[in-house]
Amino acid sequence: MTSFVLASSLFPGQPDWVRAEAQAGSLAEPVGRILGFTPRVRLASLANDPAIDAGERDVERVLREEAARDAGEIFVLPAALDWNLWQREALGARLAEFRRERPDTLVFHDDVDPCHPLVVECFADRVGRALAGQPVPPQRAGVLLIASGQGDSGSRAQSYRLMRLVWEQLGLAHGEVAFLRHPQVFLAAALERCSREPLHWVPIPQSQWRTEHLDYARTILDNFARHHPEFSCCPLADAPGDHPALNAWLTQRMTRLWQEKRSREAVRIRSAKSEPADCGPRVWSGERWTAAESNLPRSGFIARARNRDALAAVLRSMLPASDTYIVKVTWHGYATGTYTDAAALDLLLGALPGRAVIVEGHTSSRNLGGAHWDWESEAREHRAWIRQQDMEYLRRTGLEEVMARHRAAYVNVTEAYWDGACAPPERLAAPRRPELATFVPESLLALRGSPFLSFARFKGPTRLGISNLFGLIPAPLRSAWHGPNITYFASVCCDLAKLYGALFPMFGVVEALHSAVRWDRKGLYRSRWGNYDLVLSNGILTVSEGLAGADILASRLQGQDVSRSAFFDVVKQELGWEADAAALSLPAELLTRFA
Fold first, then answer.
1. d(Cα 138, Cα 168) in Å, to the nearest integer?
2. I need a labelling partner for 229 at 20 to 30 A (CA). Which of 66, 127, 349, 433 fits?
3. Is the pLDDT of residue 335 over 80?
4. 418 burial class (0-12, 13-18, 19+ CB within 10 angstroms)?
5. DSSP labels for 216-283?
């Protein structure tokens, strides 16, 4: 379980404590939509005075309570915009003590940036609202930011920077900073300086919630106004509280902290000594990894198979016995880790109890370059070159050797179509798009009734087993079939699934047997779709009867909310839905790795 703890300057009994607790609880849903799982979000107190006892809401006690509730990782976010020196030191000491007490619980934290654009937006909005009721243009107004000043010189410098950013964003005439607990510049002296300027001033506290500092500032302002009735000033603005911009800022910090931890974990290589000795097949039950059994849910499950015997046991629980198995692989190009490689294919072919027939079509990206013709209209004229490039691809990647060792056959749907060796469409169930019925090779139709595996890669939340069938369209460049949007593309893939599903029992196998693709604009690897990283996966795959279940599970493991996906909306309408796969509780360690 993952927990986030917001460490606030508030403590129970203060006027805004209940609102702050409600804000913390409300952040679980938006964070969950981004991360792909719903964490616990708690509010904890780290009051600005060591004499204050926050009781059960003290940050140290909250951390211990979360650890006792099986939180494997806890992310602590300082949630005060103006911390003093004692609070910083106290938080560091308490986190260090907690790590010594609970070495098995991972704890991460970040620091507050009060000049984040969303924080600036929040305070600019507060100033703008205060001026909205005044007959004063921004060019004749000034902002007075009031902070405690109890931090170090760096935190006081941040207050000046925050004031400057708000001032410039609103185009105000002037800006000042005043402190309540530091002599340079104390609030009363700052007010004297402001009163000499012919401006209308808007004082705002550098605080998210109402604290004793805000009440103290209000008292000083009221006293000053009584003695200087000529001073033009708005009432002290209320603290912004659960302002939408601050909610978004906290959400961003939580997701960034989690993603940074995940990135560090992805490149960390475990010691071989710590690897478990048990290499048998494992299946995720929704709560824990258990031994693979024969009565696994046919709607879809997540499995771990580290070797051929383990994979054979997993497939045996799902696939019917047959002399022949048709396998649609993913061979779209050379981009490392994005295609069905020799290692994964070797495991699969060694695990299948019968002979395999590999199915794929030509594609414009599976070559070494040098094609200067129009792939849409001239590809067939250059089929000799394309075929030679296909053979070179199989040789260079080691796939040719694997297929030869396992005596697997290879059917290229593009070559069959160009040879006129596809089955007559009248022998097939007419799909919504009749042209698709002209693309099924006769050699496959002769195997009617054999199990058909869409053997796809973990390489994105929608490019999985159903999308893998797109390669059964013979054209090497399939741009016209992609259509104008993702829903059109999804409907084409679903039509192919229904066409082949009328001929063969269909099974989805989405594999990350050795690694998975995680897209990242700063990733180490590059492809025509963008940059990405490869994360070690240690034998993970999703399996289902039919294609939907395996795709739903693999997509969710990569952080996709399938209930909010246009692609899966089409799948649900065209192929049906696997509610169990959509509702299964997922293993947190895989979400951390893949999402």
1. 11
2. 127
3. yes
4. middle
5. HHHHHHHHHHHH-TT--BPPPPPP--S-HHHHHHHHHHHHHHHHHHHHHHHHPPPPGGGS-S--S-EE
Q: What is the pLDDT of residues 145-203, one digit of tens each?
A: 999 888 888 889 999 999 999 999 999 999 999 998 888 889 889 898 898 888 998 99
Lowest-pLDDT range of 70-74, 348-352, 554-558: 70-74
Tell me 339's DSSP state.
Answer: S
Nearest residue to 12 (alpha-carbon basis) of 56, 75, 73: 56
Q: What is the pLDDT of residue 592?
A: 85
CA distance 540 to 586: 13
Give the Cα separation of 168 and 260 in Å (integer).
32
Q: Which of 405, 568, 532, 356 is nearest to 458 (CA)?
A: 532
**For 559, phi and psi rounded to 5 degrees?**
90, 5
**Residue 186 DSSP class:** B
CA-to-CA distance for 319 and 372, rounded, in angstroms? 44
- Please check whether residue 390 is in contact with residue 329, taking contact to mean a CB–CB distance below 8 angstroms: no
* Secondary structure element (H or E) that encloses residue 164, with its range: helix 153-170
Question: Amino acid letter at 182?
Answer: H
Closest by alpha carbon to 561, among 4, 40, 25, 38? Answer: 38
User: How many Cβ atoms from other residues are within 10 Å of residue 193's Cβ?
Assistant: 12
Calpha distance 449→326 (Å, rounded): 10
pLDDT digits (tens, 9 = 90+) for 346-378: 999 999 999 999 999 999 999 998 888 899 899
C-beta contacts of 268-276 below 8 A and 24+ residues apart? none
pLDDT value for 527? 85
Among candidate residues 405, 494, 395, 403, the one with its CA nearest the CA of residue 454: 494
Which residue is it, tokens 């060796």? 421
What distance in Å separates the CA atoms of residue 402 and residue 342, rounded to the nearest whole number? 6
Cα gap 357→354, rounded to integer Å: 10
Give the 3-state secondary structure of residue 428: coil
Which tokens is 323 given?
Answer: 């002399």
Q: Supply the angle between the helices 17-26 and 28-35 in degrees, to the nearest 10.
A: 20
The tokens for 78 are 């300082």
> Is the predicted pLDDT of residue 495 greater than 60, yes or no?
yes
Per DSSP, 9 falls in state S
- Mean pLDDT of the 441-457 span: 96
* d(C-alpha 101, C-alpha 251), whole Å: 29
In angstroms, rounded to a whole number, what is the distance separating the alpha carbons of residues 300 and 554?
Answer: 10
Nearest one of 577, 556, 581, 446 to 36, comparing CA atoms: 556
How many CB atoms lie under 10 A from the CB of residue 504?
18
Residue 299: pLDDT band (50, 70, 90) is very high
Spatial separation of the C-alpha atoms in residues 191 and 224, rounded to whole Å? 8
For residue 429, the SS3 value is coil
